[in-house]
Amino acid sequence: MPDPTLIRAKATGDKTVVRVLMAHEMESGQRKDPTNGRSVPAWFIRELSITLNGRPLLSAQCGPSMARNPFLQFTVRGAKAGDRIGVSWIDNRGERRSDEAAVG
């Protein structure tokens, strides 16, 4: 199973800044292996979803052009301390990861 997704959510007034760091190698399929010259197979996050207290907040389809260990930051209105932010993704190999953190 991939490493845990790091989630930081800090509420300030009516706005909450959410920072997400996903551990994933994110191979584009364009690079060649230096030892044998063969193309390295594509391996990337395909679908990403973020929830607030179990309700959908953000949904995205991703592709091979994202950087290794993708970082995402966004602001949410109305979230308060103690609310739960959930992050789930699935990659093109079928691997999945789901993590959750409380808003601080």
TrEMBL record:
User: Where does the record place the Sulphur oxidation protein SoxZ domain?
Assistant: 8-101
Q: Name one Pfam family in it.
A: SoxZ
Top-rank taxon: Bacteria
Q: Which SUPFAM superfamilies does its entry note?
A: E set domains
Name of the molecule in the record? Thiosulfate oxidation carrier complex protein SoxZ
Query: What organism is recorded for this protein?
Result: Pseudaquabacterium inlustre
Q: What is the lineage of its organism?
A: Bacteria, Pseudomonadati, Pseudomonadota, Betaproteobacteria, Burkholderiales
Gene that produces this protein:
soxZ
